[in-house]
């Protein structure tokens, strides 16, 4: 991985590409993959959220915070980028769901008024160069025995649609390395699955569930997204549920 990358550089890149059009297009549920694959799995793993205090760590434009608040959770969303947190606060002013949005880097969390029952860190860690302190901050924000739910682009099946469109199959040749993956909005950083699981173990967490959601074939058939049939055959995302030390 290039040594020039820092959390600050990644935040600047995400902020520069967060156009108003993109924020509005993903304001309710996020993009296609989040709506059909990641969010349903995260919501199922979290379970009944009524009256529970939840931290949405790296909340982006706040789509998941709003989804959880609709289900009765007391939500705090943390997001470092100026444009995304401003957009999230704007929608909160309109919808009045009781969500508190805090602008901060996950590696330097301010006082968030006590521990959380659940921390959700969905589609965030693979975009953070200095990811281990961010994951530790998520675990530290939980009450003893609290639930951590992490969503990631699956490290074994990154860039799934693009390679499927080109080859009719998925190809990967550098799985065990760590490296940057430039993207249309900002860079992600490849790490093997073992890096995340071993770090959770080192932090004293207990694995509850490891999910690799696949796309419903009827949803794929109704979609006009090129190469989306790959999501029926292979998992582009993984979601991990773990319990903090008691």
How is this fold's topology laid out?
Elements: H1 7-17, H2 20-25, H3 32-46, E1 53-57, H4 63-70, E2 74-79, H5 82-95, E3 100-103, E4 116-122, H6 131-140, E5 142-153, H7 160-167, E6 179-181, E7 188-190, H8 193-202, E8 206-211, H9 217-222, H10 230-233, E9 237-243
Parallel strand pairs: 1-2, 1-4, 2-3, 4-5
Antiparallel strand pairs: 5-9, 6-7, 8-9
What do you see in this structure?
The chain has 246 residues and is an alpha/beta fold. Helices cover 37% and strands 22% of the residues. The protein has ten helices and nine strands. It has helices at residues 7-17, 20-25, 32-46, 63-70, 82-95, 131-140, 160-167, 193-202, 217-222, 230-233, and strands spanning 53-57, 74-79, 100-103, 116-122, 142-153, 179-181, 188-190, 206-211, 237-243. The longest helix is centred in the first third of the chain and has 15 residues, at 32-46. The radius of gyration is 17 Å and the shape is globular. The N and C termini lie far apart (35 Å). 40% of the residues are buried. The model has no long low-confidence stretch (mean pLDDT 95).
